[in-house]
Amino acid sequence: MKAVVLVGGEGTRLRPLTYTTPKPLLPIANVEFLERQLAWLARHGVDEAVLSLGYMPEAFTRHFHDERFGDMKLRFVVEHEPLGTAGGIRFAAEGINERMLVCNGDVLTDLDLSAFVRFHDECGAEATISLAQVEDPSAFGVVPTRTDGEVIAFVEKPPREQVPTNWINAGTYVLEPSVLDGIPARLNVSIERETFPRMLERPGRLYAMQSDAYWLDIGTPQKYFEAHVDVCSGRLGRPPVAGASEWSSGVWVQPGATIAPDAELVAPVLIGERANVGSGARIEASVLGADVEVGAGASLARSVVLDAVSVAPGASIADLVVAPDAALPCGPREG
Ligand code: GTP
Questions:
Q1: Which residues are catalytic?
Q2: Could you tell me which CATH class the domain 238-334 is placed in?
Q3: What is the atom index within ligand 1 of the atom nearest the CA of 23?
Q4: pTM of the full structure
Q5: Residue 109: which pLDDT band, with cuts at 50, 70 and 90?
Q6: CATH superfamily of 2-217
């Protein structure tokens, strides 16, 4: 089966990290998010993925320079101006004349895609949307359905007191090729705000499947951090990264890391390849990337420290996402 993965957005809410790395290539627990997503697609039989690119396309073509991810073939399609979610799908899916999976490139999930496609088949749908349940749906597209799954309405970001249901559009779709015919070519069109609502004008076309699978949109700093905690806590399988070993429950260490015997590690923790944790340091609910240096007596709590960061001896860091190669704490600028 083929999949289209939407990875063309600028990721403005994760700036400044996304000034240098597009959101789908930011790591989650030391594995690029997009690699996690492609591995999930591959587990459910996707053998070809089209990456719908717009922002920083060279970062993707460089990362997947042989146009493969394991056994999966990759194709790159670059938009020269943003086409929105539906316009992007239509442009990327040019030439695909069969049923396809489509996913937003910023949703971490272990949704059973095989069951999802079966549901789509059983409904005889033209398009099927996966739904996730959240406590506060007011920031999402809310999707009330009939008991058989047919979508009744699309309510984009309703005020809290007018929320019709807690089930929201989870950003994974099965589409028949006929859906693409209804999307105008080369225009900026939103699938959530335009294509799906328009499909409701005729019954029997648009269905949605409720699922309690793990689901998280990684698009804000808070959610980006949460994704690390969930992956390191084993909510998406173990180990969190291939090759990591579990030192104690929820404390994972990658090959080549050195940790002083008197350092204190409080789960969930992941220490990256060749990272070095000095004597008396304390690391709690945090992830260190590759080649990170943590000085003696330093303390890190609830933080994600990306590759090659150095943390000075005795420094104290909490609730931060630290960009690669930074030195902490930052001293006053000279001159
Ligand atoms: P923010 O700017 O922080 O909202 O992030 P974003 O740019 O990723 O936007 P959003 O979270 O709404 O996008 C959801 C998914 O659609 C992400 O995977 C984006 O990469 C992708 N996306 C958004 N706009 C476009 C677009 O115009 N073209 C393509 N190809 N993908 C898009």
A1: 157
A2: mainly beta
A3: 8
A4: 0.93
A5: very high
A6: Spore Coat Polysaccharide Biosynthesis Protein SpsA; Chain A (3.90.550.10)
